[in-house]
Fold:
Amino acid sequence: MRLTRRQFTIGTLIAAGTAGMPLYVKAQGKKTIAVLFDGLYSPFWVAGLDVIKQDLTKRGYEMVQAISDKDDNRQFEQVRAMLARKVDGIIIVQTDSNAVIPAIKAANEAKVPMVHFNRPPAKTEAFSVAVVADNRKITNATVEHMVEVARKQGGKFKAAILIGNLGDPNAIGRRDGFFDVVDKNKDIIDVVARIPTEWNADVAFAGLTNAFQANPDINFLFTSSDFLFPQIVQAMKVRNKFHTIGHKDHVIFGGFDGDAMAYELLKDKYLDADGVQDLFKEAELAVNAIVDLQEGKTVDRVLLDPGFAIHQANLEQVRDRMWGYTIYKQKNG
Amino acid sequence: MSGLPMAGTRSTGPRRLLRHLLFSEYLVLYLSVAYFAAVVPFVPQMASAEVMRNILSDMLPLLMVAIGQTFVLIVAGIDLSVTSIIAMASVVGASVMTGDGGYLADSALAVPGAMLAMVAVGLAIGAFNGFCVTRLGMPPFIVTLTTMMFFSGAAIWFTTFHTETSSIANLPQGFVALGQGNMGGVPNALWVVAAVGIAAHLVLARTALGRRLYACGQNRNAAAVAGVPVARVVAAAFLISGACAAVASILYTGRLQTGTPILGQTILLDIIGAVVIGGTSLFGGKGKVLWTVFGVLFLVLLDTSLKMLGMSLFSVFAIKGAVILLAAVIDAVRTRFAARL
Structure:
């Protein structure tokens, strides 16, 4: 079988046209940072990506992004592709804290700094920096406020917690933070439902619906992430449990993240308290860490965002530090 | 059976080229070369040794599972459960060998024991699929869709018995080396995939089983009349697919140094797409291991270039989807033209 040069040329053109070749122009002279997220499935990650992008642009970096859609192998391949592209640093949000370790090792070998944004890796001898919220402490503060409300209200409470994917240390920190507090208050709080969500809204909705069916008297509810609010509100409405603070059937309600819906629920008095991650600070810490590592400076392995709890008593005072309020303001003026 | 006849009618120029390209079994290889040539000016790093190595190592586990899928497509079936086999085998194998309380932790048998367990998982699920399709007469699509759902869930459930987190880590170095290590500059995984690939090629091209697989794919009734044990042959295809998915799981798990129940969850389109792009027919009776190699090469090449360009995942999905759709259309057109010739 022989192929003439003419045939080959036409074949090449057909192939290039078919593939819908995207144009690519590399900015010359700019340092490039790869930002690799595992998904944009909650407002926190969408806002996080946006804030990082703005920060990098402000500092004169070019950003190249990739999403792995919760596929550890794909993310590993993305890291290698970025290393081959000779990026100057990688900011990553991995799905699994263990499965990211080969990617850290690959970055170490290529001498490219890697920073984990908001999700630390498992223990490893490979070096990377993780910017994390103090999930346990922030949850402690949030749930303590919820318990305070419960004590003021009086009576006994049946509690439920929506737990995240336990491959994510953040989810573990939030779960432990919740139990630190409720275990000290067993005299009034009985945890009747531990609902695994795998960070999946559908799973959360089904789990909470089942929990309400099994325990119709649940009146104390904490979610490990605000992105589950739409499903939680829906499940509560169906069971006639969605009422404002002060109503006799109000469920003492808390969340974690500090997104725009959390602010709205707080403002409208449906939500009692919310743990807030300081997204702006975390993005700044992540970019600073990349810059410092590039300059050969020493950076701690873990950079902590202390975060804070926002609730009805301090809403007006601290809302300006809540990233969800910033988004709310942008949308609503 | 494997190649398609060339048109015998006289024509010139572009029509002859089109016919030549359309019916050539090297069509996808040509496209790969052309695509590579077209993309290199935009992403010069694509031509670097590092990226070439990445492309090769990215191809290997995908090729492994795609070879198994080729067998199933040849008998006009489909195996959607391969991703759950990858996940299930991954966590079962990891639970056997993990240093964090694995069944054979710190034993010399840990790695071989784990690998045997992984292959056993693949064979068991493959055998179950084959039994349902051949003995119970259920459509492969439904059988493998439901086994995919069941074992995807079972893998997560199984993991909860072995770890507080969602994955099983601390795997022995000997196992990790299989997914990541090199021998004489050649990736260890390449030896495994090459051995399986050559064996698969020989089975299809040189054995009675191979001829029977094609016969079953072309016309099951005619094959049965000709004395082919159709049920056993179709069941064998599912068994091979399960085993290949399990070996792919060994490579993926070694690569990530972690047994994870979501491993391979999102690559079903890549697996079937690669086989179809290669030219194996969705209608059965036509396919080759070499074509699957070309299909995997093209898909990984496309994927790598899009990653290097920093395209969003949604663009990657859209472009890959379009390419796979185009491959399916070409398959339909080739089948239609072949019937006329």
Remarks:
- The two ends of chain A are 69 Å apart (CA to CA).
- Residues 35 and 295 of chain A are 19 Å apart (CA to CA).
- The longest strand of chain A covers residues 189-196.
